[in-house]
Amino acid sequence: MSRFSASRNIILTVFMISTFAIGMTEYVVTGLLTQFAEDLHVNVSTTGLLLSVYAISVAIFGPLLRIATIRLPSKPLLLGLMGLFIISNIIAATAPNFQVLVLSRLLSAVMHAPFFGLCMSIAFTLSTPEKGTRAIAAVQGGLTIAIMLGVPFGSYLGGIFDWRYVFWFVALLGFISLIGLILVVPNQKVGVTPNLRSELKIFKNRNVLLVLAIIVFGFSGVFTAYTFTEPMLTQIAGFNVTNITIGLFVFGVGAVIGTFASGKIPPHLLTERLMMVLIGLAAVLALFTFLIPFKFVAFVMCFLFGAGTFGTTPILNAKIILAGKEAPSLSGTIAASIFNLANSIGATLSTVFLNVGASFTLITLIASGMILFGLVLTFVTHKVEDKSLFAPQNS
């Protein structure tokens, strides 16, 4: 155990590199939708499926795969999942048509939730109680750094050269991550074999179910707006490739700042801080399309959008893991899966709205309303949840 504890920072760094690669694969498509549409001969609205299919696949297949592999040691499972990730991105880079590209997204999605769940659980276990949320934020930080650097870089790389280079680059990152996992993650044997029946009791845990409801019915509003950020910046703000790259980068800067700021919140203040973040995020989404025609203000709105979006995720992840004590093996996977279910709901809704003729302004207003509903659910949660789960002496 001492060896494992001594290498905590190195392990967290490798986890961040890995989640950076996975996060880039998940989100980089938002900066390439126009290119997919032109090269693969589909409508821009149809390319939204690349996000919704990924997200719903994470939500459905992620928990199933984790349940099927719950008795496996963590290191071999992490390596197998990363191998699948590398293969999926090679398929994406060589996809001859849109259908194969969608298939590659499904393969990437299958490994997403179990991988994030394992990383968050290991990071949380490695940490003292007061640093548990920060450790989760560190794992999440790889994804948000991907939003800051990977997505705009991918958008620029695809815009200047070809979108296929983006997936080759991600496959290379996956290979580097695989080497890192082989070198630094201890090959520990499973101590106490997880009891699946006991862990599934998490779905009867009122405190966990309340958080899941906030994510599904509230946080889903984020992706209702985020899915078509690149077309909004193109059509409403009039941005070219360079300005879109800057806009996505600024969004990512906000995401990183929001993630690590939330990681410093003590457990007993998580719900109160969540309400504050949701209020700000709802306001940003309501005003987004009205303000982005003004270039400088557009960058500010991108920053606030990123900060609000990813300022919520460490809070919600931490609440699920802290409240779901009966499911130490499943709670992290469930958290990652439910976020992607919300992402799928949001991406699907925005695609449907756009196909029936809704404007981008209407879509962002609907997204803001969904966030406000999540705020109401958070207020209810604050009133009825078991606060002893988050109290300093028990965290």
UniProtKB/TrEMBL annotation:
Pfam hit, one: MFS_1
Organism (species): Priestia filamentosa
What does the UniProt keyword field contain? Cell membrane, Membrane, Transmembrane, Transmembrane helix, Transport
Q: Where in the cell is it found?
A: Cell membrane
Matching CDD domains = MFS_NepI_like
Q: What is the protein's membrane topology class?
A: Multi-pass membrane protein
A GO molecular-function term, please?
A: transmembrane transporter activity
Q: Name one GO cellular component term.
A: plasma membrane
User: What protein name is recorded for this chain?
Assistant: MFS transporter
Q: Does the keyword Transmembrane apply?
A: yes
Q: Where mainly located?
A: membrane
